[in-house]
Amino acid sequence: MNLAGIDLLAKAPPAEGDVFLGGRWLAAADGRTYPVHDPATGDLIRHVSSAGPDDARAAIDAAHSAAAGWRATPPRRRSEILHDTFALMREHTDTLARLIVLENGKAYRDAAAEVGYAAEFFRWFAEEAVRVGSAFGDAPAGGYRHVVRKHPVGVTAFVTPWNFPAAMATRKIAPALAAGCPVLLKPAPETPLTALAVAALLAEAGLPDGLLNVLPTDRAPEVVSAWLGDERVRKFSFTGSTATGKVLLEQAAANVVNVTMELGGNAPFVVCADADVDAAVRGAMDAKMRGGGEVCIAANRFYVHADVAAEFTEKFGAAMAAVRVGPGLEDGVTLGPMINEGSVDKIRSLVDDAVARGARIAARGGTPDGPGHFHPATVLVDVPDDARILHEEVFGPVAPLTTFTDENEMLARANATVHGLASYVYSRDVGRALRIAERLEAGMVGVNRGLLSDPAAPFGGVKQSGLGREGGREGIEAFLETQYIALDWTD
Fold first, then answer.
1. What is the pLDDT of residues 359-380, one digit of tens each?
2. What is the pLDDT of residues 105-124, one digit of tens each?
3. Is 296 a residue of the active site?
4. Which of 62, 424, 427, 482 is the most buried (most CB within 10 A)?
């Protein structure tokens, strides 16, 4: 597999195939392939091998066979491989970013930033790998000792989404490998090539065969069911919609599989009366428009105090209207296409519903002529509380604005959702900002900041936005079991 793109971007799978299994590039067991398209043009990028249940079971065999050796590998050696992978990702930033643009559509600027963010997970967890330790102490009642040790949970299986094809993979792969666990990865069918490139870099960095197995497929239920139905798979991590997460939780329950779920969001963005409006607009552009709004922590609902609503709307609307839309590799483009036409149709329906209920379009950018799944950056005002766009995840470049005067009433509206992934607050009064942040029902809150994600911080939500945390010191804990040994001896 050639990272420079000769094989990754061939119109058909290379002779050896795209299923990365046991350290080898293989065709799907039954020979099936599926097409991957460029969302900016609709053109075929290439056909990719489509793994099936036989491949899924073979991947478990490979991972299980490699598990004991990796578990016994010194943490320092695991750390070195992850450090080397970090360096390789940084070295190949341009190639990886262009690959992301091609299959995901996001603007090159966002794609390059994603590569940097994705690489940081390897650096962070390379450093955490050597910090996993055990504890030894006297029993309070005396007479024996307590030994508490950590060990790898075992074979892990991951399902990642298309919106961050590099970062969502590395956020799971890096801590699992750091902890000593082999990995099974099913990337999103829309964006398999980036995950394959990451696998190629890990192999180049010296990762032993069988520890990372990547199965691109357009028949996910068959692959994932095979994994969750096998008792050797002891950890499952999913990033995607809440509806799909609920189905997978039911499947994981059959074998009591340890799960991490990073699910949907409906993030409120609060602008208080004393906010620095210019800073709030910059933060709003970050929180709303990063990745074209196709981000689970994107600002979804804007609550702006009536005293600054006019100023914020004018400045934010001007910034949104000025967004240049087009293919992600074109100079100056900051908003690429949506992932597919179904996504565009959903966004349009949410805007149409809001307008039908009384909302107004305060600002709207343009879209290029010709093919591609584009939607303009849009600001809605006077959005009523019963509009669907305030209750459904937009996953696109549309910002619905509402106003408030009473803090308690605003918080009640902001928390009136089954989701609780991210929230944002802008205020010059740190006390007020923290008071609001602590009352927001969200796993993460940005205070005077529109960018939240950091490999060194725990990422995750509350309520129906998920279970567990990824990143930070907590991230590696998800891949470790705790064993207690009561130790006694005689003289």
1. 999 999 999 999 999 999 999 9
2. 999 999 999 999 999 999 99
3. yes
4. 424
